[in-house]
Please model this.
Amino acid sequence: MKIYTILLILLITTLSSCNTKTVSTGEIKPVQNIDTAYYSYGGFNCSFKLMLMSNGEFIDAVHSFSCIGGGSTLTKTYGKYVIEDSTLLTLFPVSIETLEYIDYNTITPKITKSNYIDKSRKINTQFRIIKWNLSTYIMNETYYDSENDIIRFADNFNSGDEPKYHGRYFVSENKKLDTLKNELDLNQIPEKYHSYFLKTPIIAKIKSAKKIFDKHYQGETGWLIEIDKGSTSNVSNRLTFKIKTGGLSLDIDSVSSACSFGYYDYDFSLDRFPIGTELRTKWE
Model:
């Protein structure tokens, strides 16, 4: 009996000693929780993601995929960021990490690390923060091929794609059901861009349509469609007009003061879409 009593005392003393060591040495530390805001968009064979962490650090990740062989490259840029007046985001890149996957079967990628140098892998570092309903957009104003993020955003706004469908610019969506129908506050956007945003949809009608022939393609190649609205009605060559049922979508490529033209190379006939058919930039 004495032996069992002694063993029990030793066991209790040992457990008590272990607990005391754990607390006194501080070896167990709580895991630091860092909230992260995710912004992303997709492109042809590539995806883009920007992660802003609550500790002031960012990760810019570009994942590009090869058309042949199934290889891919993931390039990450690390650094710090600052948000001013809740409207302007500035990134300060510090380092780059590149992971190369030779093919689909690659388990361990080739990893290359280096300091950030503007000329080696330039990323956009200045963004404007725009909020609309439950979505937050961050947009760069650098021009590529006569357009930038804000102009592309305006195109999608005018067509009605936004706020449900997005373009090639960073956006963070709230996963909750977005039932808000607030108007976009243009005060968030520099005044020089306001003319790109239509205050109301433009309504037009088909004025004429004729077949386009090209001897190199051995016959007709499409239709040149004229609508009865032009620059005096705020039509520009960035707009797309659609019929209500979605069977006809016309990208405008030339504009005069009173009419505009678009080329349509799909199945078209004046029986299906007669003169006078109504088109709009956006249908509610």
